[in-house]
Amino acid sequence: MRTYMTWIRRHRKTIGINILLTFAVVGFFIVAPIAGIKILNSYTHIRGKSHVSSLLELPNYADIEWAEQYYIDQGQLQYRYSDFVSWSPEQLATPTINIDNYGRRVTHLATEVGSEDIWIFGGSTVWGLGVNDANTIPSLLADSLQLTTINYGVNGYTSRQDLAYLIQTYSDVRKTSSSRHTIVFYGGINDSLYSCRTDKSLHATVREADIQESIDNERLVTSGSVKQILRPSLTFVDKFMSLLKTSRLGGLVGFWKPSSELKNFYRCDSDPEWASQAAQVLVDNWKTAQSIVEAHGDRFISLLQPVSAISDTRLDHLPETLELDKQYQAVYPYIRVHAGNSDLKFHDLSRVLDRDEYFYIDDAHVTPNGNKYIAQALADLLS
């Protein structure tokens, strides 16, 4: 014991330095990632503001007073994990974007689900990315038909998520025998885009890789205390890798790369069989939804949405998205074929924006003038 204490006294300086170095290293791995996360968030915010500025300069946003406020409000959107559908929006109240406590974007004439109303399911084009509450497709449809229209669109959703959301909605809404709903499934873009990616399966969501990374991170550490220590580092790595992989910010619709980097990122344009399977998955999901809706005594309709790649409209204000365009051009014909060879109640709206006007703000989303044409086409079908 005396020898041990003598050794400690003799080497106390070295021991002290080693202890300080240990705390310094541990502290670095805790503090540095937290600081890194803040830096990345700031950088992402700056890039986001630059992207918004370029959007606001588009000719189809000219004279739209609420446009700048909309993108400010969009930055406040938050999402939570939701079983079966993966994610859903948090409640929000802003001048241009309002989300109710069910995660649904508010529409004109919105009331509680009643005896006659319309439910519209889809991704960000239904939700209304790029427009205020009054100019979403559901709101414009409500104005046209003077019927309560519920916006069940969620940014990034595929037809498989729409199907899960429909089942969940029927469970939540206690129907009575006198109730009647018209259910609209509006899509094509997200299913084509995500299913064609070489890093995803046919049934993938846009956040498939992010969810898998989170699961993998949980596997790395099992001790609660260790997990808490490493969590900032893991979060920093996730954010940094996500930043490297993305070119568009917000992450609401997808995590896309510039077209110049996408030659080996998508497969449908070079693999017709895969493109056909991707289309079949969409049609099968819509057919399943139709069966569920009709079993409840309700009306069902599915709509193939317009996309810039196959629209005869003005696109000279936008950068080229050649690799993305090839995927839509590969999958859309198969959607029409598979839908036409089934008993699906299907309508093709992909050419509804074939006009000499500026509609698109990217390959998929449009400003209010585009949504008005889409809503009117849907109103004509329903009436």
Question: Segments where pLDDT lies below 50 for 5+ residues?
Answer: 42-48, 246-256
Distance between the termini: 94 Å
Largest sheet: 5 strands, parallel
CATH topology of the largest domain: Rossmann fold
User: Structural class, judged by helices and strands?
Assistant: alpha/beta
The CATH C-level class name of the largest domain: Alpha Beta
Helix content: 40-55%
Shape call: globular
CATH superfamily of the largest domain: SGNH hydrolase
- Number of separate domains: 2
Number of helices: 12
Radius of gyration: 25 Å
What's the count of strands? Answer: 9
Topology as a string of helices (H) and strands (E): HHHEEEEEHHEHEHHHHEHEH
CATH architecture of the largest domain: 3-Layer(aba) Sandwich
Give the neighbour order of strands across the main sheet.
6-5-7-8-9
Question: Please, what is the average pLDDT?
Answer: 83
Q: Strand fraction band? A: 5-15%
Secondary-structure map with pairings?
Blueprint (H helix, E strand, L loop, with lengths): L1 H9 L1 H45 L10 H8 L4 E4 L3 E4 L2 E2 L4 E2 L16 E7 L1 H4 L9 H9 L2 E6 L5 H14 L7 E8 L1 H7 L12 H13 L3 H22 L26 H24 L3 E6 L17 H19 L5 E3 L19 H15 L1
Parallel strand pairs: 5-6, 5-7, 7-8, 8-9
Antiparallel strand pairs: 1-2, 3-4
Helix pairs in contact: 2-9, 5-12, 6-10, 10-11
Characterization of the model:
This protein is α/β, with parallel strands linked by helices and 383 residues long. The chain has helices at residues 2-10, 12-56, 67-74, 124-127, 137-145, 159-172, 189-195, 208-220, 224-245, 272-295, 322-340, 368-382, and strands spanning 79-82, 86-89, 92-93, 98-99, 116-122, 148-153, 180-187, 299-304, 346-348. β3 and β4 form a beta hairpin. α10 (272-295) packs across α11. The chain is globular. The N and C termini lie far apart (94 Å). The model is unreliable at 42-48 and 246-256 (pLDDT under 50).
